[in-house]
Amino acid sequence: MLFNFICRATLPPARPYITCCHALLSSSYQSSLFTTKTSRSSNQNSFTVTYLINSCGVSPESANLTSRRLDLSKSPNTADSVLALFNKQGFTKSQLSKAVSKHPRILLSDPEKTLLPNFKILKSLGLSNAELVRILTLIPKSFASSKFQDTALHSVEYLRNVLGTDDKVVSAIKRFPLVLTYNLQVYATENIQLLLEVGVPELTVKAMLAQQPRTFFTTADRFRKVVRDVQEMGFEPSKLRFLLAVHAVRAMSKTTWDTKVEVYKKWGWSKDEILMAFEKYPGCMIASTDKITRILDFLVNTMGWERSFIVQWPIVFCFSLEKRVIPRCLVYQYLEEKGLIEEEEDFCFTKWLMYSETKFLKWVVKRYEEEAHEILKLYRRHLNEANGSTTSILRNRDVI
């Protein structure tokens, strides 16, 4: 008996052996299946990556990322049809690349049932192909939605009723294309009514809706708080600046506002000076913290402007530093160093920075007729250098 027990204890059991073999076979099968799936997935990814790069102009990095959540191998004909429609509408390769990069799944949209009707809605307003392309490039995800047709039609109808003309409707859409995706009856009506109740003229409200429609698109509670804050700052509702201030405050969170206030303070501005500048031109608080810093750096350290002068002209923060402020101010500095600016003549902000490009160049040529050729040459050089440099570089080099 003991012998039989020892034999049974030492002999390997038959069942586990079979189970082990089964496990090995199963593991081998699963490995083969995984390899097949991986290979198929790799082929799908490869097709999508190649299509996005070659047909849509998407960068390799973006194409690789997109291929993880988009498979074009199952519907290449749909993607081809979408691209054909885009090309017919006048898309350039770069515009197409931008739209697809933002929302790759637009390539799976139905050209006839979804995209073409959406194009027709916008064309009915008189928008040009170039304007249509720009709008789609900005909101490709919304444009590719089947719900866009209903939302856009309701938005257009609402804007027509409030603004009165298609020209103003188009202006609002061009300024803020996402207006086509909002239920304006919900987002705009109550906020507009609040403005009228506090004393904002109806014409001013309509003008703001056409020029800055985004101002109105927030919850009624949030909008009511913004209006109250602007009133407490001392803005008069009957003046245009009241709505400009509402737009500025509405555009950012309190944290962002406080951060910008701290940026101005680091340059020596008091709370009163910041508020004074904001009252003169509310847009000075819309500029990014980086832009505020770079403009102050240039005006203070390169141009030597006093803080009090900048406070008087806060609109400077809304100008392009590279395309307007730097090149024009450096030309002024050059003329001053050459003794071509009369001693009693202060920097005329209106002429040097407020004039449009065309008007500015005509004024310079007329004002400095003998030196005009050299001045224009210098201006173009500063313009080119500023667009590829930083204020710190400009500050450390010769002006001429």
TrEMBL record:
SMART domains: Mterf. InterPro entries: MTERF, MTERF_sf. It comes from the Eukaryota. Pfam families: mTERF. One of its GO terms (molecular function) is nucleic acid binding. GO terms for biological process: DNA-templated transcription termination. Keywords: Transcription, Transcription regulation, Transcription termination, Transit peptide. Signal peptide: none annotated. Gene3D superfamilies: Transcription termination factor 3, mitochondrial. Belongs to the mTERF family. This is Uncharacterized protein.
